[in-house]
Amino acid sequence: MGPAVIDFEFQAAAAVLNMSSPVRFDVVSALLYVDRRGAPENRQLGFDTVEKCALLKAIAETSKNGGDRCWVTEVNWPLWEGPHSPAGRSVSVDEETQADYLVRYYLLCLTSGFVDRVYWWQLVARGYGLMDPSAARLRERPSFTALATLEQQLGGTTYLRTASPSPTARLAMFEGVRGQVMVAWSLAGPENLTLEAPWERGVSRDGLPLAVEPGHSVTLTASPIYLEAADGAALAAR
Known about the structure:
The chain is built from four helices and 14 strands. By secondary structure, it is an alpha+beta fold. The longest helix is centred in the middle third of the chain and has 16 residues.
């Protein structure tokens, strides 16, 4: 697995993957940090996170020394508490924002079809880990709970499609043994999503139950929520 180039510097990855070498990488890995750009949907040199994943996949598939599987083997958003990333304090976020960005980054990468795995750096660490070791007892940060909920809600499901009922709303649809699951969030401020189907239940980013009633709206924010409909009913947004 390699070459594990950090940040969006795929010219270095392409150079390594196409040099004359007896070494071949079964998996093309990247430390695909996008924290310097803020939210995972933001662009860098014209590329958003999904498009960066597409470019990585294209480099892997056309390279001399790389397999066609791609993994993101390191990513995080540093926290205000420090110690901070080499990018500096200006890219640091609070714990709630970190948890929101984690879920959205995982969804963007894993539903792209270009990346098979994503690894968060790291489990226990001051400044960015899923757990905080500074207290007498390990404390689970919101990002820990958010990642656990993501796995609980979407583990074993199949991705169906993504929709954007408004310029800032994002919906990702999945099919599982319990029926369809939709993950929804907003890129800019609270906005209402009207449910026109019998969604049975809702779950917050942190796994807490949400009140869901057909014909009524749910409020979308930067924190993704999960909605489940056993009969696979569709929705519309107003």
